């Protein structure tokens, strides 16, 4: 649905749809990539990735006491999702995932023969975690549970209390399932502290993450999979046959993501998106009178357009006015009546995009 909407945009349209940072990759990474291309041989790396890069990744999760052999560098976090679900899931196994949640979760689950089961993040509670619903969906057939924080599409982050509740529910369920923790947006947050990871509370956690969002490296395709040694060994076999290894140039350049200069770029990036978030929330609420869910991370706002009818109808009207938004029902039944609006655009374009959305809403009233 996302691509179908985006591909129909008129020339000159403003996209508030796709989740791709519009800011450039930090200079420190670009400079290193150029040096690597010019000065080094760039053949295959080890299938699991450069040892020094895996060591840096492992260092981000000190509580897990990971060795290099418990980390695989992948071609983006989406390959990581495929690898871990293909590794863990057999025909008919249940995969518990959020509603709403990233559209790849149910599709990959279906591809590997699993059965999707959704735990609700109720719209009436601003898409907050509902522990009772979560517990009711766990069973002995549950083989894996996916959580994402901050969330795509809602931007909501799971609190320490939420994560403790998840860990306790998992431990008492008898399923012995793994949690797949999608942390691709974890570095993009607007709270005083970085959101915690479920891996801090539940040892049978496999972490999926990467540099696409935190370092604006979407096209560089650097992600990772980290966790249980036996699971990672099995996933590595599949990884080797799927891609051999992640790009050697991207891996070498990615080493710079752990420098002080990169950390400063990350802070600047967060500040820019924080300002954009507040700017967009103000426009949507004050100018259009729409109810919005304030995100604690990522770069999406869930906007309630139910009073104008079906969310697809609203998105279609937006296309006519030259603004791209995403009908949030694409992410689950709980988000029907909402648009997911991205703030991967500067404040001037956000203002113009909201003006066009306002024209679209007027057309629906006429």
What can you tell me about this protein's structure?
With 366 residues, this protein is an alpha/beta fold. 41% of the residues lie in helices and 16% in strands. It is built from 12 helices and 13 strands. α7 links the parallel β5 and β6. α4 crosses α5 and α4 packs across α8. The protein is globular, with a radius of gyration of 21 Å. The protein starts with a helix and ends with a helix.
> Which stretches are low in confidence, meaning pLDDT under 50 for 5 or more residues running?
none
* Count of strand segments: 13
Largest sheet, strands/sense/barrel: 7 strands, mixed
CA radius of gyration: 21 Å
The end-to-end distance, rounded to whole angstroms, is 27 Å
- Indicate the proportion of strand residues: 15-25%
Averaged pLDDT: 97
Shape field: globular
**What would you call the structural class?**
alpha/beta
Percentage of residues in helical conformation: 40-55%
The H-and-E topology, N to C, reads as HEHHEHEHEHEHEEEHHHEEHEEEH
Q: How many H/I helical runs?
A: 12
Main sheet strand line-up: 2-8-7-6-5-3-4
């Amino acid at each position: 649905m996302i691509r179908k909407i985006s591909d129909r945009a008129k020339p000159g349209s403003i996209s508030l749809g796709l989740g791709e940072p519009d800011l450039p990759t930090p200079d420190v990474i670009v400079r290193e990539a150029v040096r690597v291309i010019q000065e080094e041989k760039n053949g295959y790396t080890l299938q699991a990735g450069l040892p020094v890069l895996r060591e840096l990744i492992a260092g981000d999760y000190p509580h897990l006491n990971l060795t290099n052999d418990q980390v695989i560098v992948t071609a983006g976090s989406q390959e990581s999702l495929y690898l871990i679900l293909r590794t863990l899931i057999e025909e008919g196994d249940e995969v518990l995932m959020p509603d709403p949640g990233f559209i790849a979760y149910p599709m990959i689950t279906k591809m590997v023969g699993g059965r999707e089961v959704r735990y609700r993040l109720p719209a009436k509670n601003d898409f907050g975690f509902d522990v009772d619903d979560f517990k009711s969906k766990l069973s002995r057939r549950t083989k894996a549970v996916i959580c994402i924080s901050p969330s795509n599409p809602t931007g909501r982050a799971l609190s320490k209390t939420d994560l403790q509740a998840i860990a306790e529910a998992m431990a008492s369920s008898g399923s012995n399932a793994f949690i797949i923790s999608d942390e691709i947006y974890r570095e993009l947050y607007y709270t005083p502290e970085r959101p915690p990871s479920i891996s801090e509370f539940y040892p049978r956690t496999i972490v999926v993450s990467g540099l696409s969002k935190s370092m604006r490296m979407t096209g560089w395709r650097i992600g990772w999979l980290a966790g249980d040694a036996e699971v990672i060994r099995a996933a590595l076999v599949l990884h080797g046959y799927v891609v051999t290894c992640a790009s050697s140039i991207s891996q070498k350049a990615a080493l710079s993501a752990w420098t002080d200069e990169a950390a400063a770029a990350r802070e600047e990036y967060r500040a820019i998106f924080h300002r954009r978030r507040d700017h967009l929330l103000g426009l949507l609420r004050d100018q259009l009178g729409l109810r919005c869910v304030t995100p604690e991370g990522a770069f999406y706002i869930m906007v309630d357009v139910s009073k104008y009818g079906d969310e697809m109808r609203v998105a279609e009207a937006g296309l006519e006015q030259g603004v791209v938004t995403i009908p949030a029902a694409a992410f689950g039944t709980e988000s029907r009546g909402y648009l997911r609006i991205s703030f991967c655009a500067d404040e001037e374009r956000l203002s113009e995009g909201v003006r066009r959305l306002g024209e679209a809403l007027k057309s629906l009233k006429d």
